[in-house]
Amino acid sequence: MPDSRKIKCLVIDDELPAREILKKHITDVEALELSGTCSNAVEAISFLKDNRVDLLFLDIQMPHLLGTNFLRTLKNPPKVIFTTAYRKYAVEGFELDAVDFLLKPISFERFLKAVNKVLQVNLLANYDVAAPDNHSESAPPFLYFRSNRKMVKVLFNEILYIEGLNDYIKIITTNKPIITKHLLASLEQMLPPKEFVRIHKSFIVAINKIESFNADSVDIARHEIPIGRSYKVNVNKILGSSAAS
User: Fold this and answer.
1) Measuring CA to CA, which residue among 79, 72, 151 is closest to residue 108?
2) Which ranges constitute the DSSP H helices of the chain?
3) pLDDT tens digits for 144-154?
4) pLDDT at 30
5) Residue 12 in contact with residue 63, Cβ under 8 Å?
6) pLDDT value for 140
7) Roughly how many angstroms between the first and final C-alpha of the chain, as a whole number?
8) Which residues contact 144 (CB under 8 A, 6 or more apart)?
9) Long-range contacts: 74-82, Cβ < 8 Å, 24+?
10) Nearest-5° angle of CA 184, CA 185, CA 187?
């Protein structure tokens, strides 16, 4: 991914260990670029005067000025992911339109889930508004998933279907299957509804990959995937089907 497409990040936290953890997490994600770190809001104000930043990882409980109050001082704030050891700040954080709220200590899996929310907003916005002649130049939307101790980029247009397996999901793509720890319901909220539909409590499918269907199932890449009873009305409506059970 060219640097111009990377999301520039600033870490603001008064605790060195917390900054180091976030720095490590950021460098492990190809789509992110660490622009700098600050130990308090005063440093951050100075940094932001001279540097463009797309995303703040902002601690709340800091000396001199709380992270929430600091955010209120910014006229056009970047996207924000709050980081804190105190759950009590969660409501206030979301009232300030934070993308997510991470409780310390921050695991890489939880960090990645928050970053995927940012990627979803950024890339889908670019993808949707691109003019027809520039559409091919836009990076197709994607998400990152942790699988086999690696971070795997999954392009939306390569997904055939997704199967929920309790606390894990199995993503079947045009290249290979990917198994990762993730809840199906959580992933459903991150996928564009015009491109994906949940057809069963355990399955989400890519609409444009459906080869055929009837009232009870859809066929994708030689796989027959059941349509759950409670999902039939919505699925039939989306697929333009008048099939009856």
Assistant:
1) 151
2) 16-27, 41-50, 67-73, 90-95, 108-129, 184-190, 232-238
3) 888 887 788 89
4) 84
5) no
6) 61
7) 47
8) 29, 30, 31, 112, 115, 116, 119, 151, 152, 153, 154
9) 74/48, 78/10, 78/53, 78/54, 79/54, 79/55, 79/118, 79/121, 80/55, 80/56, 81/55, 81/56, 81/57, 81/114, 81/115, 81/118, 82/58
10) 65
- Note whether 3-121 and 143-238 share their fold: no
Distance (Å, whole) CA 37 – CA 213:
52
Residue 145 · residue 154 · CB < 8 Å = yes
pTM comes to 0.61
Enter the DSSP assignment of 25: H
Fold category of 143-238 in CATH: OB fold (Dihydrolipoamide Acetyltransferase, E2P) (2.40.50)
Domain ranges of the chain: 3-121, 143-238
CATH fold of 3-121 reads Rossmann fold (3.40.50)
pLDDT at 222 over 80: yes
Amino acid at 108: F
* Cα distance between residue 41 and residue 181, in whole Å: 35
